[in-house]
Records
---
Amino acid sequence: MPVLVDINLTIREGEIVGLLGRSGSGKSTLLRTVGGLITPSSGTALYRDRSMTGPPEGISIVFQSFALFPWLTVLGNVEIALDALGIGRDEVRRKALSAIDLIGLDGFQSAYPRELSGGMRQRVGFARAIAIEPVLLLMDEPFSALDVLTAELLRTDLVEMWRDGKLPIKSVLLVTHNIEEAVMMCDRAMVLSSNPGQIIAEIAIPLTHPRDRQDPLFQEVVDRIYSVLTKRKVESITPSIVGIAQVLPNANVGPIAGLLEALAAPPYNNEAELAELARSLSFEVDDLFPGSGCA
Ligand SMILES: Nc1ncnc2c1ncn2[C@@H]1O[C@H](COP(=O)(O)OP(=O)(O)OP(=O)(O)O)[C@@H](O)[C@H]1O
Ligand SMILES: [Mg+2]
């Protein structure tokens, strides 16, 4: 199954690029390819003009799930990233403490992840990622496991540090489901379609920081991205027959029974266009029958 097709993406110095798309569109796959964790089955992923044979030095990732080692302290979790660089012990300690300080965790060096709130855990994730002073920082939905206010605080802190040139980073690629988050933080947003993932829009966000959600221009960009993301492509779907080679998605019995009932009742009487049925049930066709365009 091709996940990504025809991707042409360049991340330039000095910019934060947002990557948006529906669940399963291939955002994480693309982010991991950019990070050298996945080798593309065709085409090339270049880092500073050289093709990658694994994760290169100079790229780090912040994960949605924080991905901290529970048996290491905050300091240990940050130092472990620096240890991999093969620099001296003192240098490791100095850089780790400075990242911890910068990211607002001063005083928590000796705490274990279980002793921290979610927001603080993700701050450790950020400290670990920036401690190695990466050229490119990759973030895969870094705020989505946090409550609204904590996420907002962390976002604002990061944008401020970025704007003030305090972060030792040249560029950022941010994967997010949250359109407002992208418009709040990014210089441009790339939108991926699903099945297969293709870049269907590149939207510049030429707003100055600090950005204001109430600003009509802000809302205009949000609306533009929203309309690209939710564009109904029902007309462009080519009907095909479901063969036995196609794996059907898992579904519960209840919703299937409901679907059959709706299909059996008038006005359909056992036969319906999938797109029409989806519309009458207020579903996106992709949600009603993921990965398919067939009736
Ligand atoms: N290791 C893998 N092996 C095979 N298929 C995979 C693998 N990882 C992801 N996929 C498939 O690639 C597609 C894209 O997955 P991906 O995780 O990149 O989506 P996503 O856009 O990040 O979704 P979400 O928003 O839910 O995180 C999915 O169909 C998924 O099943
Ligand atoms: Mg993902």
---
Amino acid sequence: MDFLEVLNETAERVKKAVKPLLKSPIASRTYGVGAGGDSQKHIDLEAEKAIVDALQEQRLDFTLISEETGIQRYGRTPKYYVTTDPIDGTTNLLRGIPFACSSIAISVTPQLDNIEAGVVVDLFHNTTYLAQRGRGAFRNSEKVNPTQVDNLDDAVVGVDINSCEASQKLAKLLAQIKHVRHLGANALELCYVADGTMDGFIDIRGKLRTTDIAAAILVIQESGAIITTSKGAPLSSPLSPTATVDFIAAGNKRLHRRISTALGTDPRHVDPH
Ligand SMILES: [Mg+2]
């Protein structure tokens, strides 16, 4: 099975499903709380439905691990796991802040370090990030490369500060970065590190769900950028709507080390690959 083809087709379907809802009041209708714990909007469910429909039409039997409807089996003998956050950045999307995406990953086991292929679709722009294990990471079918910027004065670094408890180590890092950003859709922000749009991105809250990062982690790794936990270990976690991770991502090892050091992590961290 050509995972990239399947994911590309699925990405197109999500874009089509979401587009007419972008300026519709129905989009923000709330139906309760999703499996990941966030309030569930009409547009989130429509995006998930588009993903499931597209995968089923392409004859993929799979177990869905979704931020919205949780764990569901589709098909007779589900061989694959599809981990998705149908919309990452729903608040941005509903307010018209043009930074939101859909994230879909395929794996053969429900483990974050076992993703075979992933797609992150920018829902406002004509940009799709795709990655397949061992084959590289692509933006609209062009291979991406991360940045060589390796100092905190020049680096543009995303920091997830949502519901973030102020800590001394974070304060120390923020004091050293000149260009801090918080854009509001972590999967897409990670892809920005993969293609060098940004130089680093960290989330040390321990609140980021594996459904958000499942596709983007492969895009990051296949691009050659570095991602570890905040303690410098390889990221590994069961894939589930509630499992969470923290991470430091950077375009290159030197910048990763500088960010880690500023955060007080031992710079002799283990090799992230
Ligand atoms: Mg979501």
